[in-house]
Design brief:
With 498 residues, this protein is an alpha/beta fold. The chain is built from 14 helices and 25 strands. The protein has a 9-stranded mixed sheet with strand order 2-1-10-9-11-12-13-14-15, with helices on both faces. It has a 4-stranded parallel sheet with strand order 4-3-5-6, sandwiched between helices. Helix 4 crosses helix 5. The longest helix has 17 residues. The termini are far apart.
């Protein structure tokens, strides 16, 4: 069966060609303009040698060029590989090499890391939004528009989202056209009452991240609505855009709600248009949720998902009992269950691992059959999160099975940071743990032991990590010990370091 995620733009363009699809400050794109841009980029990609099934990477923040390139790649039948814009050059190179990317499209703000990473991987780099030039997205888009979107299969890979694993090396979750189209066109409308052409969503969640990409960008385009872009989240800027563009939907991670709630300003913003608020990516403190709802008069619905689940797996439902602090109920077409360490289903109230199956589950991890088999044991995706189901069928997360640190809604895996620390010439032992943080949820802390006769300061180690890791990953706190505590087998006891 032929199916391409890009048809959500083509369909909305056919229905409402002159309606606004994207707003970015004083700039706006209609559906017809977005469709023409995507066609031009698609034709340019094909002329430059990109074939259906090839991977094309994006290192672009929340600007219109992200969406233009994203759908241009899909129109061409190629695969989108969004890269976190905070990635350092070595990380960019890794993503390009691991995904087999034929091309990298990058924004001028991140040109240095992009070109350095692309050169190391032997990949061509184009600059998006740089104002032209032979080596630019604008030049690429000058190709003649295609008449048709390439007829990919429903099970063809549309997007590869990189997510860290317990080994520390990021893995590429392959999401199909069917995964993503069903998640944005059938699941998202059930989360928001009245989602449609009059909807205006604030897109301040990164579009390279699954939440912002599916729920905001793709969800709004599938509904024929509009999203207004904020390239970098700042609470006062967010309020200004909500007021200016009469935003009806705000979706954010808990740290964003914390910042909005505690912003000190003498101005009273008109948020009367705001009807729905959504959150996910990290547990939302019930106290913050209640205070925000009381102050702004709008309910927050909380959900749960992962890159591997496209991402929405569960959410608060408008027609089901609302339970603050929960992750809601399985969404349309998705099943969830709680299992013990032997994969046996547990009853209501019993704690175990949350497992998921349905139309939203990834094909697998790119080039990692063993990791795929482990994650999809018995046909269920194993989330690594510990939770329980209550008597109403509502799900709750109580702990994380893995050592993952959730910093401001982003996943940080200690092993990846530890591998960088171990490359420092003065360090002989290293462990990374999460410590509580008021606004970010958790902060990254490194505990290190130095070699005999070696010296290093906290500032030096922080800077060393900063140069080799994305900005949300490097430790802000470093503790020095003569030797790290170990158990009888020699394993470092992280519980003693938190």
């Amino acid at each position: 069966m032929s199916l391409n995620l890009g048809t959500i733009v083509r369909a909305s363009s056919a229905d409402r060609p002159e309606a606004t699809a994207i707003v970015f400050g004083e700039r706006s794109l209609s559906y017809a303009e977005l469709d023409r841009c995507a066609q031009g980029i698609s034709a340019g990609l094909r002329e430059s040698g990109v074939q259906p099934g090839d991977t094309v990477a994006l290192l672009v923040p929340n600007v219109p060029e992200f969406t233009m390139a994203y759908f241009g790649i899909l129109y061409a039948g190629a695969v989108v590989v969004p890269i976190n814009v905070l990635a350092a050059a070595p990380e960019v190179s890794y993503f390009l090499e691991d995904s087999g990317a034929r091309l990298l499209i990058a924004h001028p703000l991140f040109e240095e890391a992009a070109r350095e990473g692309a050169a190391a991987a032997g990949v061509r780099c184009l600059i998006a939004g740089g104002g032209g030039g032979a080596d630019s997205l604008e030049a690429l888009a000058e190709g003649l528009p295609q008449e048709e979107i390439y007829p990919t299969s429903a099970e063809d890979t549309a997007v590869i989202l990189y997510t860290s694993g317990t080994t520390g090396k990021p893995k590429g979750a392959e999401l199909t056209h069917s995964n993503l189209l069903l998640n944005c066109s059938l699941v998202v409308p059930r989360l928001v009452d009245g989602l449609g052409p009059e909807t205006v969503a604030l897109a301040t969640l990164p579009l390279f991240h699954s939440f912002g990409q599916t729920v905001i960008q793709n969800g709004m385009l599938a509904a024929g609505g509009c999203f207004t872009l904020l390239a970098r989240f700042e609470p006062e800027k967010a309020f200004e855009v909500m007021e200016r563009d009469r935003v009806t939907i705000f979706a954010g991670v808990p740290t964003m709600y914390f910042a909005l709630l505690h912003l000190e300003t003498s101005r009273n913003y008109d948020l009367s248009s705001l009807r729905f608020c959504l959150t996910g990516g990290a547990p939302m403190p019930v106290e913050v949720m209640g205070a925000f709802e009381k102050k702004f008069g709008v309910e927050i619905q909380e959900g749960f998902g992962l890159s591997e689940t496209s991402p929405v797996a569960s959410f608060g439902m408008l027609d089901r009992p609302r339970k603050a602090g929960s992750i809601g109920y399985p969404v349309w077409g998705v099943q969830m269950r709680i299992v013990d360490d032997d994969d046996k289903p547990l009853g209501d109230g019993e704690r175990g691992e949350i497992c998921i199956r349905g139309h939203n589950i990834m094909k697998g991890y790119l080039g990692r059959p063993e990791a795929t088999q482990e994650a999809l044991k018995g046909g269920w995706f194993h989330s690594g999160d510990i939770g329980y189901r209550d008597e109403d069928g509502c799900y709750w997360i109580v702990d994380r099975k893995k050592d993952m640190i959730l910093r401001g809604g982003f996943n940080v895996y200690p092993r990846e940071v530890e591998e960088v620390l171990y490359t420092h010439p003065a360090i002989v032992e290293a462990a990374v743990v999460g410590i509580p943080h008021e606004s970010h949820g958790e902060e990254v802390k490194a505990v290190v032991a130095l070699g005999a006769g070696q010296s290093a300061s906290e500032e030096e180690i922080v800077l060393f990590c900063k140069e080799n890791l994305a900005a949300y990953k490097y430790p802000r706190v470093v503790e020095f010990l003569p030797e790290l505590p170990k158990g009888p087998t020699g394993k470092i006891l992280k519980r003693e370091l938190r």
